[in-house]
Design a protein that fits this description.
CATH topology of the largest domain: Jelly Rolls
Number of strands: 18
Shape: elongated
CATH architecture of the largest domain: Sandwich
Strand content: 25-35%
Largest sheet: 13 strands, mixed
CATH class of the largest domain: Mainly Beta
């Protein structure tokens, strides 16, 4: 703990120490001194405790598919002196919860995410981590930029050129070859080009295609097709083509320039996008997620963007060990 830590960060450090094991006599006294130093310290500690006890925190962990055996875990403040357990709104709840504490939660979240990626890792020819981009030149001379937390498989031979976007974002400068059109599959979307520059983004079953140069044919499973020219973009969701936008393609792949550009989107969606730039997740609780936001932010420090958006939504930002961010 340093003098530069915020009051809430200091409270988090004491909180996780108290869950790990009973504090030594010296640490107990140091904690009591910290608690007495300012009323803000007790308030910050109570906020952390209340957040940890919130059912929504447990639900969020379950949604992220961390599987841990169920048995009781230490009540809040169990390792701290009695005075700490009386500070602010400290509770003595002994509800049965998952056997973990803040530092372990981040570890299991990271491990669970990696294990969940195993099937994708077995399919992918190219794969990027959160916050990483990769430049690729294919055998046909096509140049690709693979975005953060993305994966593709590729098959290029004398008879065909095909790619499958398994996750994330892909920007393509397709080599011109009329004999072998470049075909891309992304969920239920099919894309075909001869030679052009464009991007494809995949989020669950939601696919967006945005064209910078040339023409791109976007097709749905039921046979509907749309021809997109330079500047145009279109989405396919749940197997159906959405509205064709004749302009605005550059905003759809702002990530290629290190930027996140969004217009009138729910805060929850934007935070999910920012989460793809970080190794640890961003969890969102409360009503702030429905707030509509617009912005143009650099992605070199996604945590600063999360903090700015949390302030905009009137929410509080809490950092847990391991890099886990909670907007609540």
């Amino acid at each position: 703990m340093t003098e530069h830590d915020t009051c809430e960060e200091q409270a988090l450090i004491w909180f996780t120490r108290g869950l790990d094991a009973p504090l030594s006599v010296d640490l107990q006294q140091a904690f009591l001194d910290w608690l007495d130093a300012s009323p803000e310290h007790a308030e910050a500690y109570a906020r952390v405790e209340n957040l940890w006890q919130a059912d929504s925190f447990e639900h969020a962990l379950r949604e992220l598919e961390t599987e841990l055996p169920e048995h009781g875990f230490p009540p809040v403040g169990a390792g701290l002196p009695a005075k700490a357990r009386k500070a602010g709104s400290i509770s003595h709840s002994r509800k049965r919860r998952w056997p973990t504490y803040a530092s372990a939660a981040a570890l299991f979240l990271a491990l669970g995410t990696w294990l969940g990626d195993l099937p994708l890792r077995l399919q992918a020819d190219y794969l990027t981590a959160s916050g990483e981009q990769q430049r690729i030149t294919l055998a046909d001379g096509s140049r690709l930029l693979l975005g953060s937390d993305s994966a593709i498989s590729a098959s290029i031979d004398d008879d065909q050129r095909s790619l499958r976007l398994l996750r994330g974002d892909l920007y393509i400068e397709a080599a011109h070859d009329t004999r072998r059109p470049l075909r891309i599959k992304a969920a239920q979307a099919s894309v075909e080009v001869v030679g052009t520059r464009f991007s494809v983004s995949l989020r669950d079953d939601h696919v967006a295609v945005a064209v910078d140069e040339g023409k791109v044919r976007l097709s749905s499973p039921d046979g509907d097709a749309s021809l997109l020219g330079a500047g145009a973009w279109q989405q396919l969701q749940a197997g159906h083509l959405g509205e064709r936008h004749p302009q605005g393609s550059a905003e759809q792949h702002g990530w290629t320039e290190g930027r996140l550009i969004f217009q009138d989107r729910p805060l929850a969606e934007v935070l999910k996008e920012l989460g793809r730039q970080r190794r640890a997740p961003i969890l969102l609780f409360g009503d702030a997620g429905s707030l509509r936001v617009s912005g143009n932010y650099k992605l070199d420090d996604p945590d600063l963007v999360v903090a700015a958006l949390a302030r905009l939504g009137g929410a509080r930002l809490t950092r847990l060990p391991g890099g886990l961010l909670i907007v609540h």
